[in-house]
Write a structure and sequence with these properties.
CATH architecture of one domain: Alpha-Beta Complex
Number of helices: 17
Shape: globular
Number of strands: 26
Oligomer: single chain
CATH class of one domain: Alpha Beta
Distance between the termini: 31 Å
Structural class: alpha+beta
Length: 632
């Protein structure tokens, strides 16, 4: 493998950086003014470039922010580094102050120095952050302005040899997003020392290479850019190809998986590589996910796996969707505690090739849960996953999506079960069989018959065993999309004038209210079940939808007194006409009961079969066969 020799006694692992695009939306992630101005430039500071800002007279700015605080706790926990050097180049006159925080989020000043056109170096210990805490610095001015020319966090270069990375981006008909990624990575000179190859796996028909800005982006990247075209094998197939090509190339110590529909903070690439260099053991280094439509909102900075439910949840006391524009890092104690992670989404995730050599590549499951399962598998072999603060991308948010109302539900349900089979929480899947069955019931109450059909197809394929997964990879998406189209709840109509007017049946009562407690919810659910199983749907409901239900309001109890409804699609494009079908309800519910009893009984043997067959579907040789078969 190609490795970069670094003779310096200190290695730079973090640069202080600033945004130069979309500044108003993201400035709170980089600079904290603490004066109620919302961290916006103009009143307290002015951004000069990616590394430099000017601080105005009688103003103070803090780098105690998501992207510019140094994650001391993570460095102490996962590396043998026990000291860090802050190097700040400044012009003008002012005061530089260094702060640290504890796991409780309490901050204290640890160093302070006046400056006048000079470079300030401050050595700091990394010995009191085992449970959490950051370092950061503030710059304050008196009567005259000062300029922060650059700032770096350096650590003693005990390794002397540092790895390089192949960045793997996979895309399917999102050429402008993928092109933006190429441009962002190519324009950032800070990652030149660590980037071996930018590998673009294009699985679409609207190609990135056909976009107007592609030649210029390719010229900047030069021979570091490599484009591979292949059949659409989903995220698993695209990222699996990036893993395989990185191993084949024998140049990079790491592969960094990066979504196409994301905007990178390129400094995050350097930080993840350098952190991995110093980790005591090969470590998967993940980045957080910030929302593209609310760019100061952090979706997550670490998730853990609930084995009993086979589902994810936030780590520790953290919560999903933290808004740094409202609550800064300095004002959010729970984010100062070091968060344990079981996995990291593949919107941005760095994986050492040593881990690939040891445990294999991604599951061939098209999309969903492949990232979770991979980290769980790595963790079982002693390779941790770290979601490192200050490392993140902006990604399309989940809040305007409802995968249960798309073809993706097949993959979500099947791959959730596969993950549960490979990493079981109990002999018979703990609570997964019951939760899965109750999920079917809830969807049937909401008249989402197409979704339940996909879930049953998922379980049927699950029962076939791991051997069929490579075979299903190139074709199953098209099959289930066609299958789903047979159901009225899956057909979206964009023009509401093409549908009958909404009209309640004569004599219908008012809208049922949301149950206010578990007892009321259980009683209402029982009434809904009896009604849907025993009472024939009205002829009126086939002539007129009885209610319009906005996508954000969809819930099972809203269907408790009606037989049909227009439900808006999550993307706002149109509506689908949901129609109750008593006969279909009966058949589907009976099938669900039988399927889940069968899965509960067979879970121990099926789980063992999946674990025993894992190597045969995740090895480099197995993936090589997949790519060879689909290229014919």
């Amino acid at each position: 493998m190609n490795q970069t020799v670094r003779p310096e006694s200190y290695a730079t692992v973090n640069h202080t950086v600033f945004p130069v695009r979309g500044v108003a939306e993201v400035s709170s992630l980089y600079v904290d003014t603490g004066d109620g101005s919302g961290s916006q430039p103009g009143e307290s500071y002015e951004i000069n470039d990616r590394r430099s800002i000017k601080v105005f007279p009688h103003r103070r700015v803090s780098m105690g922010t998501f992207f510019n605080a140094f994650p001391a706790s993570y460095w102490q926990r996962f590396t043998d580094v026990r000291a860090v050097r802050l190097v700040v180049r400044l012009s003008g006159r002012g005061l530089l102050s260094v702060y640290k925080s504890s796991a409780r989020g309490r901050s204290s000043a640890v160093a302070s120095q006046s400056f006048s056109d000079e470079t300030v170096e401050i050595d700091l210990p990394l010995t009191s952050f085992i449970d959490g805490g950051f370092y950061w610095f503030d710059v304050a001015c008196a009567d005259t302005a000062a300029t922060l020319e650059s700032a770096e966090w350096r650590v003693p270069d005990t390794r002397k040899v540092h790895g390089t990375v192949t960045v793997g981006i996979t895309t399917f008909n999102r050429p402008t997003y993928a092109l933006d990624q190429l441009i962002a990575v190519g324009e950032d000179e800070g990652i030149n020392d660590v980037l071996d190859t930018l590998l673009l796996v294009d699985q679409g028909t609207d190609l990135v290479q056909d976009q107007a800005g592609y030649p210029a982006a390719a010229e900047v990247l030069g021979d570091r850019l490599r484009v591979i075209r292949q059949a659409n094998l989903g995220g698993s197939g695209g990222f699996g190809r990036a893993m395989l090509e990185t191993l084949r190339g024998e140049r990079s110590r790491y592969v960094l998986l990066l979504d196409d529909d994301a905007i990178s903070e390129p400094e995050a690439i350097l930080r993840s590589v350098r952190f991995a260099d110093f980790c005591l053991k090969p470590t998967i280094v993940g980045g957080g996910m910030l929302h593209l439509d609310e760019r100061a909102v952090l979706y997550t900075q670490g998730e853990v796996w609930d084995y009993g439910r086979s589902w994810m949840r936030p780590s520790g006391e953290s919560e999903y969707d933290h808004d740094f524009a409202e609550d800064t890092l300095r004002a959010t104690p729970e984010l100062h505690r070091r968060l344990t992670a079981d996995f990291n989404g593949w919107w941005m995730c760095l994986i050492p090739t040593e881990v690939l050599d040891r445990i294999g590549l991604a599951l061939p499951v098209f999309l969903k849960f492949d990232d979770i399962e991979f980290s769980l598998r790595a963790g079982d072999q002693g390779y941790p996953t770290v979601c490192l603060p200050g490392v993140a991308v902006w990604h399309m948010a989940w809040h305007d999506k409802d995968p249960s109302r798309t073809w993706e539900e097949y993959f979500i349900h099947r791959n959730r079960w596969i993950t549960g089979m490979l990493h079981p929480g109990g002999k018979r899947g703990a609570g997964l069989p019951l939760l899965s069955f109750l999920g079917d019931v809830k969807l049937l109450f909401m008249l989402q018959y197409s979704t339940v059909r996909l879930r049953h197809e998922a379980l049927a394929d699950l029962l076939r065993g791991p051997e069929v997964l490579p075979e299903l990879l190139p074709r199953r998406q098209a099959e289930i999309r066609a299958m789903r189209g047979d159901y009225s709840d899956a057909r979206v109509v964009e023009d509401l004038s093409d549908l009958p007017v909404v009209r309640r049946a004569p004599g219908a009562r008012g809208t049922v209210r949301r149950p206010t407690n578990p007892v009321a919810a259980l009683a209402l659910a029982a009434r809904v079940a009896i009604r849907q199983l025993l009472v024939r749907e009205t002829a009126h409901s086939r002539q007129h939808p009885e209610r319009i239900i906005p996508a954000p309001d969809i819930s099972w109890w809203r269907f408790s007194d009606i037989d049909s409804a227009l439900v808006t699609s999550p993307d706002g494009i149109g509506v689908a006409w949901y129609q109750r079908d008593r006969a279909l309800m009966r058949r589907t519910l009976a099938k669900s009961v039988l399927l889940h009893i069968n899965l509960w009984r067979r879970f121990p043997r099926l789980s063992a079969r999946y674990r025993d067959g894992l190597e045969n579907i995740t090895s480099p040789a197995a993936w090589d066969r997949v790519f060879s078969d689909t290229s014919r």
